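hey m, so remember when u said the tokens were messed up on ur end? i reran from scratch. heres the input so u can diff it against urs
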Amino acid sequence: MNDTIAAIATPPLPSAVGILRLSGPGALAAVDRVFAPFRGGPMSGRPERVLVYGALHDREGAVIDRCLCTVSRAPRSYTGEDAAELQCHGSPAALALGLEALFAAGARQALPGEFTRRAFLNGKLDLTRTEAVADLIHAETPAAVRQAAGQLGGALARAADGVYDRLAGLCAHFHAVLDYPDEDIAPFEAEELSAALSAAAAELDKLAATYERGRLLNEGVPCAIVGRPNAGKSTLFNALLGRERAIVADIPGTTRDTVEERVNFGGTLLRLIDTAGLRDTEDAVERLGVERSRAAMEGSELILAVVDSSAPVTPEDIALLRAVERTGKPWIFIAAKKDLVKNSRAVGCVTGGDGGPAALKSTLAASVELSAKTGEGLDKLEAAVAALFPEPPAGQAGALLTNARQAEAANRALEALRRGAEALQAGMPPDAVVADVEEAMSALGELTGRTVREDVTARIFERFCVGK
């Protein structure tokens, strides 16, 4: 990190503001060569974090913009290095000329995520906060924004560090007793160790249990819309998206493959999957679509089971709902096409009325009558989805595990503590148990970045864009 990096930190589209960012030992010298304040001396002599108005020059010295500039000095910057930002008009052409001028002044093109990587390596961010930066950039719902902001504020790191520090205290006590037997140090009691292991394991178990919610918050909930042909699945799909994405026709079997889109619905990011109508068919192409529909249903975390309420409920409808029930996934029954009928009897096929099979209610989350065409009932569906995937409590925002790396590290730490507790109960000596405690600490160190693995950090920064 002995060189200076520069990048355009805003999207390559015309906009009101575009940002050029620099970091490294030569950042202030480089910005002095390309930016001339209208009043006062060069930026290298200016106070930190003060916006200065001036002219931006290209590599030939010609003025290309009138903009604002600010500088930060090491270690009081995002990266922990000398840094500068130029807040320009958002012309991609002007920004490109400004970036070329910075290269001519000694900077080089920053790699994806390199600013944040330097912040991590310089101790400005731990690994959980680093991941939170990427999560915040990619957040698609208010709940995901609040989770990422809380994690960026250190909520997850504090939870992991609290357990780590208590385990470190245990190990320090053990080694003090072992290394200084003549000192007046309280003996290392097995009961004390057992209680400490149980308390730490309980905290880690609670933390590990947040992964499922955190993962769905970030990645979205796979949600399959299933039903017989012409039940109204594609109309519902389009209504949820707010645009015509799937083909809608009165001819059964129009949808022959799965169609996927993401939408914020009920405060939850849904990965909607419009599926081919489920029925027996001799058409080879449609049959392939039906097989993919069943696979989508099995792989989903939420199923919207659609039945045409304007037509009599058929044995095929009941068979479909039984198949949905067998997945064990939460599902919402939807009596569609409400605009075509006043008194639908479709809900009876899941409530047990009209001779319907009441056993279908075991994983049923809600029943909703709606018209995707008019929008009537969509608010009730939105409320049902929101109830299934509520936002984390305000105090828990930021303290969820949101990716597989974090979950794997937390679970390794938990397993190590459980092995230690079992060894203690089996009468193993404390030194054998402490080895498991130290293994748990190592795993927690990987979670927060106290223990750094280059291959892990490389995968993390692959998610970042250039300029961040």
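this time it looks ok to me. Residues 216-388 form a domain with the Rossmann fold fold (CATH 3.40.50.300). if urs says something different then somethings off w ur setup not the seq
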